[in-house]
Write a structure and sequence with these properties.
Shape: globular
Order of helices and strands: EEE
Number of helices: 0
Distance between the termini: 28 Å
Oligomer: single chain
Structural class: mainly beta
Radius of gyration: 14 Å
Number of strands: 3
Largest sheet: 3 strands, antiparallel
Strand order of the largest sheet: 2-1-3
Length: 92
Amino acid sequence: MGTFEIRVSTNGADWTIVSTGTMPDTASEKTVSFTAVNARYVRLTARSEAGNRGPWSSAAEINLLAGQTASPSGCCRAPGGRPRPATPRPPV
């Protein structure tokens, strides 16, 4: 993924941009920080691919952490393997 945009929503219909930028063209883990917000949904949009290697982008193992320094266990899947929506939390 080259350039990206992260949006959040409380209802899945109205979206607010919380971060934009460009990912480095490396295989290392990336971290994007933004100001804490109340949200139920998060949308990551790839605006370009990294390294001009084709008209596609991908992301894997996306973790959302609210002021935490380690991944909580079982954070990302609901029963049945479906992605779990982010739990609304007060700003940290």
